[in-house]
Amino acid sequence: LSFLGIESSCDDTAAAVVRGDGTILSSVVAGQTELHAAFGGVVPEIAARAHTEKLDHCVEEALHLSGLRLADLDGVAVTAGPGLIGGVMAGVMLAKGIAAGTGLPLVGVNHLAGHALTPRLTDRVEFPYLMLLVSGGHCQFLRVDAADAFHRLGGTIDDAPGEAFDKVAKLLGLPQPGGPAVEAEAASGDPARFALPRPLLDRPGCDMSFSGLKTAVLRARDDLAAARGGLSRQDRADLCAGFQAAIADVLAEKTRRALAQTRTPLLAVAGGVAANARIRADLEQVAQDGGAGFLAPPLRLCTDNAAMIAWAGIEAFRLGQRDGMALAGRPRWPLDQAAAPMLGAGK
Ligand code: ATP
Ligand code: FE
Question: Which residues does the annotation say bind Fe cation (predicted)?
């Protein structure tokens, strides 16, 4: 069994060919960071146009690198949401075109299911397991019960941690993406110098909030600037260290609760923020304390890619999912309802 996967829901255009045994034959990712850099965020219209321009090439490249032809494949999986609808549509249209032209089955995949099922692509992981998805756009706990059954335990009620890292980097004049820049600064900082909040820790449950933390950093920066006319290198490092420690503490405590609730034998993490060494080490400790294993797939499979989409397509295909030409892109698509029939989906 082998599937072509297509991903275009945010600012990465990606295509991949994956086999049913988890072998990744190819995985091509074309980013758009430089296109959006001047605007301080992803511009949906620019993203959609760039996807349209790059998708064909990505798919050709992925096929070429895999050594397979379209005729050798068993299906086409495409991200059908959630995400920026222009980009999602571009991918869905291309996938439909390929399916119509070859007669291959078409499977519409939830982008979040792609992230959530990645541990099964990289390792022989059995259900159920607890997944913490922590990226620039998302932050949520999912108990993964089956390839089509996800239970959301909680998540951020405002910013995602990656977004907070990026905003704090901007506040402190550090380059984007902010995560790696803040982590590098934090290495020489004192995390205890600034008393930054640990939002929502006093409340039960697994929901999180990160926007107040970013505001606290802004206030601390402005207080320092007002008192001394600017920030020293050490001030900046201390702020970064304090901010990183606050995020790590919140994630660790909420993960502890989620694990206690689910009692799954494994904690898996995905998303760009899981690349952070301090956060990763804290989460690993939480898993160990809870008697659970810990798994963080390689970063290139934790951030947006099409191998995870091809794999999620294979899993859904094995459960019998087939989408027809009426497959619709969905800007919003909560993962709890991933198994619910898509609006307008035909057989
Ligand atoms: P999504 O995939 O949810 O739509 P995204 O594409 O922004 O969102 P990813 O590509 O998974 O998410 O991750 C990018 C985010 O991860 C950025 O916000 C970046 O700052 C953050 N990040 C990357 N490396 C680190 C790090 N070492 N520490 C903290 N954050 C990091
Ligand atoms: Fe993603």
Answer: 111, 115, 304
